[in-house]
Design goal:
Blueprint: E1 4-9, H1 13-25, E2 29-35, H2 41-45, E3 50-52, H3 55-59, E4 66-69, H4 76-85, E5 89-93, H5 100-113, E6 117-120, H6 127-137, E7 144-152, H7 173-176, H8 178-189, E8 194-200, E9 211-218, E10 221-228, E11 238-242, E12 245-249, H9 255-260, E13 279-285, E14 288-294, H10 302-313, H11 322-341, E15 345-346
Length: 349
């Protein structure tokens, strides 16, 4: 199959930093069009693209095969539905939708049209997550009893005009950073039995949540997910405890910072983490006490788009299935219920 003609809807940070570089870098995709209502910023970076002013105009083009939606969260459902009804394969930036009912409707529509539908859960291809997954699968810690996953940064100010700061459905840090952490937990352990959550507003004059602590309860295992915007001294990215030992890892995957600096995924040593940020293992392996660092796997978010191409060509489900993204939204819904009621809630699909 030839390269897939691909279009971006929107050219904010999601498209510019996180999606377009991987589409552009891959010979499997042709970035042909970008929807920008008022500007032509995409053409400054990718001179070969055609800028159109509306999704309607984009969908009139029969040559466009894949539509990547990177607009504000409140538009995801309607725009994904419109693109699917026009016969296009669709990738939606996380979060998938505002609620699970919308997610279910899109899943049914994509199935009826025999079209690919996926959500950009790129952090499954973070090097540190791949390392943690390997450690768990190989039993380096014995039986795992507790995992903490943190995504904490420091931004004590409000960003004027930013839609994520507005008190609208789908705004706030739970919908922004939560899908990354929840998706990784669901990949590792599946659906939880219960959920306990604390969702807060901590910054002065903020109108949307900027801190959450979400506990997912499994049989003999507790997973704690935490994100916030007032961590000037960030804690560990991952902390794992098992019956034989522990693993602790500091620092975020280097790909995001590289992308923000305008680096290309095609550059040498892409996704390679410096040794000073490798995680520390302290455990017992085959009767021997082992203490030292574990080299972080090489991360590569390009793996998401490689899988999308293969899924379209071979007419199979992608690695990030829409039902996975739907379950993330269901966890978020139950987390909000738990926080509001100040209690632990049963996970109900």
């Amino acid at each position: 199959m030839e390269a897939i003609n691909t279009a971006l809807v929107g050219f904010g940070s999601s498209a510019r930093i996180y999606n377009a570089p991987f589409i552009h870098a891959s010979p499997r995709f042709n970035l042909t069009k970008v929807v920008e209502r008022h500007h032509k910023h995409s053409k400054e970076v990718y001179p070969y693209v055609q800028v159109v002013r509306s999704l309607d105009e984009l969908l009139e083009d029969p040559s466009v095969q894949l539509v990547v939606i990177t607009t504000p969260n409140t538009l995801h459902y309607t725009q994904a539905k419109q693109a699917l009804e026009a016969g296009k394969h669709v990738i939606v930036e996380k979060p998938f939708t505002i609620n699970s009912k919308e997610a279910d409707e899109l899943i049914d529509l994509a199935h009826s049209k025999e079209l690919l539908l996926s959500v950009f859960q790129n952090r499954r291809w973070d090097g540190d997550f791949l390392t943690v997954k390997d450690i768990i699968e190989k039993g380096f810690l014995g039986r795992l009893v507790e995992l903490e996953s943190h995504f904490e940064v420091f931004r004590n100010y409000l960003r004027p005009g930013a839609w994520r700061e507005e008190p609208e459905p789908g705004s706030g840090v739970l919908y922004d950073l939560g899908p990354h952490l929840i998706d990784q937990a669901l990949v590792l352990f599946g659906l939880p039995k219960e959920i306990t959550a604390f969702i807060e507003i901590q910054r002065d004059n903020a109108q949307t949540d900027d801190r959450f602590k979400l506990m997912m309860h499994y049989e003999n295992l507790r997973v704690t997910l935490m994100a916030g915007l007032l961590a000037r001294e960030a804690g560990p990215r991952y902390l794992l405890h098992g019956t034989q030992g522990s693993f602790i890892k500091y620092g975020l995957d280097p790909q995001e910072e590289a992308l923000k600096k305008g680096k290309s995924p095609l550059e040498p040593d892409w996704g390679v983490e410096s040794s000073d940020r490798w995680g520390k293992l302290n455990s017992t392996l085959q009767g021997l006490h082992v203490e030292g660092t574990i080299e972080t796997h090489v991360g590569n978010h390009q793996g998401y788009y490689d899988d999308i191409y293969d899924a379209i060509v071979n007419k199979r489900e992608p690695a990030v299935k829409p039902v996975h993204a739907r379950n993330i939204i269901r966890v978020i819904e139950l987390a909000m219920e738990s926080s509001k009621r100040k209690c632990t809630v049963e996970f109900l699909e």
